[in-house]
UniProtKB/TrEMBL annotation, chain A:
GO terms for cellular component: ATP-binding cassette (ABC) transporter complex. Its main location: membrane. This is ABC transporter permease. Belongs to the MlaE permease family. It holds the Pfam family MlaE. It comes from Christiangramia sediminis.
From TrEMBL, chain B:
Residues 11-249 form the ABC transporter domain. The lineage of its organism: Bacteria, Pseudomonadati, Bacteroidota, Flavobacteriia, Flavobacteriales. Signal peptide: none annotated. The keyword ATP-binding applies. This is ATP-binding cassette domain-containing protein. GO terms for molecular function: ATP binding; ATP hydrolysis activity. PROSITE patterns: ABC_TRANSPORTER_1, ABC_TRANSPORTER_2. It comes from the Bacteria. Keywords: ATP-binding, Nucleotide-binding, Transport. It comes from Christiangramia sediminis. It holds the Pfam family ABC_tran. Coiled coil: none annotated.
Amino acid sequence: MDSNTIWGNVKSFFAEVGDMAYFAGRFFIEVFKSPFEFRELLRQCYNMGNRSLLLVSVTGFILGLVFTLQSRPTLMEFGAESWMPSMVSISIVREIGPVIIALICAGRIGSGIGAELGSMRVTEQIDAMEVSGTNPFKYLVVTRIVATTLMLPLLILIGDAIALFGSAIIENLKGEVSFLLYFNQVFDALTFADVIPATIKSFFFGFAIGLVGCYKGYYCSKGTVGVGEASNAAVVYTSMLLFVIDFIAVFAADIFYG
Amino acid sequence: MEDLKNIEPILEIKDLKKSFAGNAVLNGFNLKLFEGENLVVMGKSGSGKSVMIKCLVGLLQADSGIIRIKDQDIEVLGRAELDLLRTHIGFLFQGSALYDSMTVRENLEFPLRRHKKKLKLNESTESLVQEALRNVGLEHTIDLMPSELSGGMQRRVALARALILKPEIILYDEPTTGLDPITSKEIIELMRNIQHTYNTSSLIITHDVDCARVISNRMILLVDGINYMQGTFEELSNSKDPKVQAFFKN
């Protein structure tokens, strides 16, 4: 790869970052302007929340099971099995739960938004909305970004709870720890310093999933190939962005709660 | 049609220019559409017909030129004013552009959500939807999804949606493209009926000579981004100009 190609790639990367920042800015302007599309917002919240619930539940449950099964032998080696509920709960609530569930949602919700809006763009449905006197940015983009921002913390909360339930089942079967004792230890171990930063960052995760999916879909071109690309790019870009947000969130939490 | 020179046009384009990446598509295009008239703009694929019609409704921003609709210059209108102006214009898209996640009923109700009161349409939403569907002969499809309709039926539902706000101007972007000859004839007949029923002014973008012959009061030939020639269908079809003849010889 010659230097011109590298320079071209760097330029197009920053141009895309700039476009996305402009798109985000437009979102913040439009979100506070009337008319508000409450019905569409509720429909999107229902679609995203309800339709992702099973996937998030299954993922959370298996996450809890596997994490506990994998950690048990190591903790037993040091005679520290009694730390299992604390370790699992802090790991899941602080980090693993939000990141894994956000990644799952990036695949489930982000790609769906990218494909749906992309398909609407190439079949002129967005143009049809515009000429019928409806602002498609408000109707399609604002509602979807708000819905993902609101729904993701809820999905993460549910996923975390189910993961802890999965972990408690393994502890109950393998370590003969009662559910009551397990959850007593979980709530003893968890503090606001664990829950609040995780909840705040999950709002940002939701915002990122909605923003990138909408951006890629809304500006989709090149026909059906473009729709596939938009859907794919929504997942790839969101996944990268989630890790960047996670790093910043952990860094900030360390400063405030360190 | 009576002498048009002294009548104010309902829609006017003056010296419209638009280029993409330095490639000029429209190079000073002019057009006047008068009340109750069917004006056909013909041109080859890629001649800028669709770009022109998209500039007209503000979907694309022109590089220069004036677009006036109902005495309003669309370039200086704010978002809300432009949205209100757009309610006076029905737009039939080339690919129908029905919202595929909504039923036919929801597709037709969509433009009414925000503008029914503003336009002082007193009838109920249900009766407006029923009336629009009746006018295109598709009342029975009201609860179907667009994917359950044939191409011709989709085009007719799209036409019903374009008519739901009772617009004064209808823009047709290639209304018969992609349809078989029989369905094309049905759509053309429907356009004629609608013109009589709603007394609309229509701007029709097409390269379908049959469509132009049946429906046009006047025609403009768009070549290389300018009005190459204009007149009635007979005048243009009898022209000896080779570029004009190229459209009619088949």
